[in-house]
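Work Package 3 (structural annotation) set out to generate three-dimensional models for the target panel prioritized at the project kickoff. During this period the team completed the workflow that converts sequence records into discrete structure tokens, so that structures can be stored uniformly alongside our sequence database. As a representative example, we reproduce one entry of 372 residues exactly as it appears in the project archive.
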Amino acid sequence: MKATIERATLLRCLSHVQSVVERRNTIPILSNVLIEADTDGTLKIMATDLDLQVIETLGAVSVETSGAITVSAHLLFDIARKLPDGSQVSLDAADNKMLVKAGRSRFTLPTLPRDDFPVIVEGDLPTSFEIPAVTLAQLIDRTRFAISTEETRYYLNGIFLHVIDDELKAAATDGHRLARFTIKRPDGAEGMPDVIVPRKCVAELRKLLEEALDTNVEIDLSASKIRFTLGGENGIVLTSKLIDGTFPDYTRVIPTGNDKLLKLDPRSLFDGVDRVATIATEKTRAVKVAVDADKVTLSVTSPDNGNAAEELPAQYNSESIEIGFNANYLKDILSQIEGDAVEIHLADAGAPTLIRQDANSPSLYVLMPMRV
């Protein structure tokens, strides 16, 4: 295999694929990327960790000899990063080695044969639909902070996608908070299986979307695999296994009878919580929220660091209530609310609280209280 490629093109592609490659691998070939050169002048670069696979197709300056080889992902990425701007990189593979040349720099890297490189077998992906990239990015941003990191509850380690009637819903929860985002069901999504997209796939997809926000993303899925195609024919294809588990019926925790409505500016509440939580320690991450007629008092008491309080104006005309929340969880939710008002629907100090921008907002959040 012998090909020449612009350094900027190579670097951009390697930055996409190398983050899929785990730093520590017991299987040496999983540290490598597969590079395939075709006589039509394209290069395909592929990386996998056996659960997630990304393939990017890019145009080369020239392909003298077609072929395929695997080489260390992080090493090639580091080399490409340090080569001079505007240079052309020659990749020449033969005799279990790859010669990388650019300007006056030469590197000889060990390689492994392409036949040993594992490929995720997608099988049949019967459900197929398109979503604007900007909508998919918003769906991820509004929910992924609530994904659980607890490995024992592996079925919560991702975003749950499911169709109800004419809506596609995305939900994530870690047992302490729930985030849900709803969009109109895309054409082709009817009858799709309920799926849980793993956390790592969500993170990689969100990075890739950043450079494709003005395009559509094609999504193909079955009950066990999902494939995202960005940028059409010569774009990026991200394929992932899905989490094999049952997501709990989260609708049961969405409160319907919370009759006390608190309305205030989400930015002011975020900043207020952030300030009073400065003195909170790991043990006392709770912030007390005391709600009275047209005002909210935030307070934190720490045995080591003293106490803090802040008063904020608000719209509220039910009976007074005191409730505690994890400061970080509350801030995570507030940072997702756009606009100058947030609705907080309260019941009592021990009941889940419903948070949303308004009744028509596609996002909905539920936060469990803490004892304070």
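The chain is about 15% helix and 40% strand.
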